[in-house]
Amino acid sequence: MTVQWKGVMPAVTTKFNDQDELDLEAFKVNIQAQLDAGVHGIILGGTLGEASTLSELEKRTLVRETVSFVKGAVPVIINIAEQSTKAAIDLARMAEEDGASGLMMLPPMRYKADDRETVTYFRKVAQSTPLPIMIYNNPVDYGIEVTLDMFEELLNDCPNIQAVKESTRDISNINRIRNRFGDRLAILCGVDTLALESLLIGADGWVAGLVCAFPAETVAIYELSKAGKIKEAIDIYRWFLPLLELDINTKLVQNIKLAEVATRIGTENVREPRLPLAGEERKKVLGIIDQAIKNRPLLPDYKNL
Questions:
Q1: Is residue 292 part of a domain?
Q2: Could you tell me which Gene3D superfamilies the record lists for this protein (predicted)?
Q3: Is the Cβ–Cβ distance between 166 and 187 less than 8 Å?
């Protein structure tokens, strides 16, 4: 399936049962809620999907089950966040075999590669697969920035590198990318609290986190903004902001899973060493979620704008 790098693409959470195994039933409840809301793709095994704790078999199972479940309604994208170039190439091959439509790729994990090493890593993986690739550029959390000059090298060599998940937190970088590359590189905002601002200055889409618990509100913001109904989009976005701030936090997985429970499309189980929120921290997050649900806005018919 061809990937159109635009729209809302949830970085979905991975569901576990009480025995710390994949909970595919709960997972599919959430995926169905995303599809019902009108999302434009599904991204598996990202940070929010607890990628670092998943086995190879679990990643493959998630891809296969999601591809089978969505039945071509939206592209299914798997994140690659491996320790070595070889492992990344192997996972890209398996993703293609399992029916994934595309890849999201982080720079090499753990080892802080320099620019030459980072470009070589992306190039070798990209040239090993026909799948389209979105590079996840998040120097804040992962310590490696993919600069415009590095993108220049990669785009010259790798036509299947097609998009960037822009998470530098520097919103002006969207204009820098557009000025340098035009439409050659699609831009998807990767920071929930900068999403509407990014869309309004030209980002093509939003790789979202709180969409896992509030899919309709997230897609509504995107569709309203693209239809020029800016005030309506801002009104929902302002209501959403306290929730969106739960995504820019080291406990984002626990925060968002707690929100999924509140909206009845998820479970709170996380994989250790993560633990569910407790004490005052839990009380504070529940307060934010409860207040948001109490004041949840009535959405317009955003699917027919």
A1: no
A2: Aldolase class I (3.20.20.70)
A3: yes
Secondary element (H or E) of residue 230: helix 230-244
The number of distinct structural domains making up the chain is 1
Whole-model pTM: value is 0.97
Give tens-digit pLDDT for 152-196.
Answer: 999 999 999 999 999 999 999 999 999 999 999 999 999 999 999
Radius of gyration of the CA atoms of the chain, in A? 18
Pairing between strand 42-44 and 7-10? unpaired
Tell me the residue range of the domain where 108 lies.
Answer: 7-216
Residue 226 lies in a domain: no
And the tokens for 268?
């709170």
Per-residue pLDDT, averaged over 282-305, amounts to 97
pLDDT reading at 109 higher than 90: no
The answer to whether position 248 is within a domain reads no
CATH label of the domain that carries residue 68: 3.20.20.70
| Order of strands, sheet of 102-105, starting from the edge strand that comes earlier in the sequence | 7-10, 205-208, 186-189, 161-166, 133-137, 102-105, 76-80, 42-44
